[in-house]
Structure formats: C-alpha cells, structure tokens
Design goal:
This protein is mostly helical. It has five helices and no strands.
C-alpha cells in the first residue's frame, strides 16, 4: 500500500508541475514515472551524482553509491539469506563471484555461531 500511495503522490506532484510550467512542461514522457520537475526523463546517473549531496545533508560519511550494494549483500548474508539468493539479487551470473566477494561476511557469521555454541556448551 505504501508504494501505491507514493505513486499516487508522484502523479499528483507531476500534475502540479505540469500546471505550473504550462507549455514549458515536456509532454513527451507523460506515461513515465521518473521525470524531473519539467517532465524530462531523469538522467541515468542522477542518483549517483546526487548521492554525495544526500550524505552531506544528513551528516553521513562519504561513501560511493555502489557501496550500498555491498552493504545490502552483507546484511542479507549476515541475516541468514542463502548465497544463491544473494547472487540472484545482485545479478551475478556466477555464484563464485558472489561468494568470493562476500565470503568474509560468511566466515564472520560462522565464527559468531561457533562462539555462541562454545558459550552454550561451557555453561
């Protein structure tokens, strides 16, 4: 329901922009969701170009937009999501790529599991 509300709000916002800009509003992409204030398509690099601004405005340390992909995969793995599912999520054609990049996270979770078992057995 949240996505539906966001899409409705975006449609309403675009209608307001269309009124405000009148004939200056681009009507070529009226069936698209991701357009800028004047109805033009948002450039593919818009998100990565503006990501540093979002970080700065929110007092967050500088990272690359691509680093969010690694954080997502690491969190999925640490929370028990199977490597095969993470491979599909990331779009890696070979599971070896996924496991080579994220095996350190998997080994860390195994270490934590082993420590938990050792603690339980010692009690």
């Amino acid at each position: 329901m949240l996505v539906e509300q966001a899409l409705i709000a975006e449609r309403e916002h675009q209608a307001e922009m269309k009124k405000a800009f009148g004939r200056g509003y681009c009507k070529k992409y009226e069936d698209y969701i991701c357009v800028d204030a004047v109805g033009e398509l948002i450039r593919p690099n818009y998100v990565s170009d503006h990501f540093p601004i979002v970080l700065r405005k929110n007092g967050l340390r500088k990272i690359r937009f691509h680093d969010l992909r690694h954080s997502c995969a690491s969190l999925l793995l640490a929370n028990g999501v199977q490597m095969k599912l993470i491979q599909e999520w990331l779009g890696h054609s070979d599971i070896g790529t996924t496991s080579n990049v994220y095996s350190h996270v998997d080994s860390e979770s195994k270490k934590l599991s082993a420590e938990a078992i050792a603690k339980a057995l010692s009690e």
